[in-house]
Write a structure and sequence with these properties.
With 367 residues, this protein is α+β, with helices and mostly antiparallel strands. It is built from four helices and twelve strands; from the N terminus they run H-E-E-E-E-H-H-E-E-E-E-E-E-E-H-E.
């Protein structure tokens, strides 16, 4: 009998094509994605090391003093000229009063010097007139001396001839001596008057110099007054521009040093982006290239920008302690270059909501 227990040959199972197809699709999609990413990266440079920037105006106290009153609060919007801080102004007011008193004294000295000059000028005029009169009297006295001298000569001859008496001769001699004495007196008086004129001229010159000195002192005192007024005005610290006040760490009674920064005033009229690109990314970047801007605070909104300018140095160069690669062990670190990107057609309402320091992703088109 034939053995029917011989096992029958099972048919060979067909391999599934699902896995190869899926693998092929993944490879193709990955290849396309990789190619597109590579191609896109060749004409674009991007960085997420970027932030919103705006103008920051430091509020600085120009003088030292104690805070009398704080007129602003954190995050408050102020307009240009609004009062922010008021300092105690007692010292400045006293200094102004002292400067004004010194100015009044200086002006009084000018008036005194001018009055002295006027008086000495009048004395000069009077002395000159007296000198003129004395010269006329001297000329008349000289004529009298000549006349009496001639009479004395004649009488000297006549007395010898006994034509006149001795008494007449003595009278002529006395007249001659009187005329000589009168001439000498007038001459001495003229010389004294002339000396007084010279003294008055010297006093006038001195008074004129005093006017110049007093005028210079008055100008200096006027400058002191203006300086004191300026310092008094500095006791009221006002907003230099429109904008938002940052954190105000100032309290009443606090002492402020001159030149110290109190807080910052953030202007809200203009915003831009500072993107820190690696030094290996900026070779093909130029001003005017378009930029795609993504702001973390507005993920659903696309922003457009344009490369505005490049920093003249890397960011580390402007740090408080810039690296010195010439000392110690050198470790090469890729540097970053700040690039300013200006917004294009930025919506005004969104611009008001943007805050300095917000994180941004910038993507520059190199085409």
């Amino acid at each position: 009998m034939e053995n029917n227990n011989t096992p029958e040959m099972e048919p060979k199972k067909k391999k599934s094509l699902v896995f190869p197809i899926i693998l092929a699709v993944i490879i193709i999609v990955g290849g396309i994605y990789g190619y597109r990413t590579y191609s896109y990266g060749q004409v674009h440079e991007e960085t997420d090391d970027a932030q919103i920037a705006s103008n920051l105006n430091p509020v600085i106290s120009k003088i030292s003093g104690y805070v009398a009153e704080v007129k602003v609060k954190d995050n408050q919007f102020v307009k240009k000229g609004d009062t922010l801080i008021i300092l105690d102004s007692k010292d400045q007011r006293i200094a102004l009063e002292q400067a004004e008193a010194a100015l009044a004294t200086a002006k009084s000295n000018i008036s005194n010097a001018e009055a002295s000059t006027t008086a000495t000028s009048k004395n000069i005029n009077s002395s000159q007139a007296a000198v003129t009169t004395a010269n006329a009297q001297i000329e008349a006295a000289k004529v009298n001396v000549w006349k009496t001298g001639q009479d004395l000569k004649r009488y000297s001859v006549l007395v010898k001839d006994h034509s006149i008496t001795q008494q007449q001769y003595e009278q002529a001699l006395a007249a001659k001596q009187t005329a000589d004495a009168q001439l000498k007196v007038l001459t001495d008086q003229r010389n004294q008057i002339a000396q007084q004129t010279n003294i008055a001229s010297s006093q006038t010159a001195a008074s004129s110099q005093q006017i110049g000195v007093a005028s210079s002192v008055a100008k200096q005192r006027q400058v002191d007054v203006e300086s004191a007024r300026l310092n008094l005005s500095y006791t009221v610290i006002t907003a230099p521009e429109d904008g938002f006040v940052g954190k105000v760490p100032i309290q009443a009674g606090q002492f402020l040093q001159a030149g110290s920064q109190l807080f910052s005033l953030i202007k809200n009229d203009q915003k831009w982006v500072i993107a820190n690109f690696k030094e290996t990314q900026v070779a093909k970047m130029v001003e005017g290239q378009k930029v795609k801007i993504d702001i973390d605070a507005y993920p659903d909104t696309d922003f457009e920008g344009v490369v505005s300018s490049f920093s003249p140095a890397t960011g580390s160069t402007f740090s408080i302690l810039p690296p010195d690669n010439a000392s110690g062990n050198f470790v090469k670190v890729v540097q970053r270059l700040p690039v300013k990107i200006s917004f294009v057609n930025l919506d005004a309402n969104i611009a008001k909501k943007l805050r300095t320091g917000m994180n941004v992703k910038a993507e520059v088109s190199l085409k």
